[in-house]
Every structure is written in structure tokens, then in C-alpha cells.
Amino acid sequence: MTVSLGKIGIWQHESLLTGEVAAELEELGYGAIWIGGSPDGELGVVERLLDATKAIPVATGIVNMWKDDAATVAASYHRIAARHPGRFLLGVGIGHPEHTRVYQKPYDKIVSYLDELDAAGVPADERVLAALGPKVLKLSAERARGAHPYLTVPAHTREAREILGPDKLLAPEQKVVLDTDPDRARSVGRPAIELYLGLDNYVRNLKRLGYTDEDVAKPGSDRLVDALALHGDAETIARGLNAHLEAGADHITVQASGGDPLRTYRELAKVLF
């Protein structure tokens, strides 16, 4: 049973996702809940959120291949899929070389991990890959349902769609700040972006998309921050999200920045659904 995600989902660290929050997000009309922050391979948080809701799917964004072995993750997938059929999408990826001492030959790691998931009976159409560059995007089309790019812009979405082809899932993440004051909004969005400007894979991807050395130098230029953390009122943010859909995304995972993300999701729901 293929998981149906809808057009707009939310992406939040698991520490902010209680059962009560998940139930409200479902009532607001969001199509999926993506759990960020490299959730543990036992995936108890996925089961808790599914138990607390009626029909909304839950996805991982992402389980880190270096941190959690494929056998553990596969067992968790089967447990959850049996309990909540058609409601769990397994997102996996390799994380960042700066965050692990054993990070070697990342592409080979992805391939071998997918081989292990195959051997354990995890269906390819029930998993997605974290992917930025062309090589892993192509692998996402060949070995998974599609791709879940993080920290991207519509220009990347357009390129990713060309690589994936017309029939594969493309679900980019987009940060948003519900604030019409540009300086105040940038002060909220910039810290979350600056963190990734020390990671080579994200920096290379942004430069490939046309951002300059000055743009990607910490803490990030206003131009870069405005693109990666959309800000404004709900209608303005909705237009920015729609740019990803027009560029070829099937589903957008919205990550609200700031001290009250649930307020942002409530306000956005009024114009999105």
C-alpha cells in the first residue's frame, strides 16, 4: 500500500512532536508529518505519532545510515507497517562527513544499505533517500520511491525533477519564518541555516545553484537566508511554497522556525487548505 502524502507536510525535530501536536496537525489538514533530527532506528517516535492520529502518514527525515544499522531499521519498518499499513514512509540518508569519524565512500554506503533493506524485505516504494547531488538523485529514482532534498531552493527542485523523471516522488524541505519584518525574520532563520554552512555537501550544492562564496560564508548572506528561510505573512509564504510545486515537487515539507512553530502551522493552514 503506497503512502499518500498530499501536497504539504510539516518537518520538525522529534522533540517538538508530541501526540497532541500530531493530532492537531492532522486536523489542520497537513498531508504528512516528517520527523527530523535523525530519529533512533527503533523508531518508537514514529509509532507514537501514528498511534495518536487517525490517518496522517509519518515519515522520517532522515534515519542516519551511519548511526542505525539496516537490520534494526528494517525490523522497525515491518513492525510499524504491520500496525499502521500505508502510513509510514522510511526516509534514510548518510548524514554529513563532519559528524562521524567512520564516514567513508558515502555512495557505496548508500548502495550497500539499500541492498540490506532489500534483503530484509523493505519495499523500495516505501522508502525515500536524502539526496542533493545528481548521482544520489539518480539512485533515488532507481532504488527508492524518490528523494527528500534538504536545504534547497526551487531551482534545485527543477533540476531534481529532471533527474528523477516524472513518476518519482520529490519532497523537498523548506524553512519558513512567519514574520513580515525582514530583519527580525532573518534573525530567526539565519541560525538554522548557518549550521549547515559548515557542511561541505550543502555548500557545494548551493554554489552549484549559483550562490557565491560570499553568500555561503557564515553566517550567510541576506539573499541566501531569504531563499532558504521564506519569510512574510502566510500568503507570501504560501506563494514561496507553491514555487517548489511549480518547479516539479510533489510534496513540500515545511519546517517552521521560531519559538512557536505550531502557531506558524496554524496560520499557514488557513491559506493552504
From TrEMBL:
UniProt superkingdom: Bacteria
Signal sequence region: none
Matches recorded under Pfam families: Bac_luciferase
Gene3D superfamilies hit by this protein: Luciferase-like domain
Residues annotated as domain Luciferase-like: 20-116
NCBIfam families referenced in this protein's UniProt entry, alphabetically: F420_MSMEG_4141 (TIGR03620)
Classification via PANTHER family: CONSERVED PROTEIN (PTHR30137:SF18), LUCIFERASE-LIKE MONOOXYGENASE (PTHR30137)
Full protein name: LLM class F420-dependent oxidoreductase
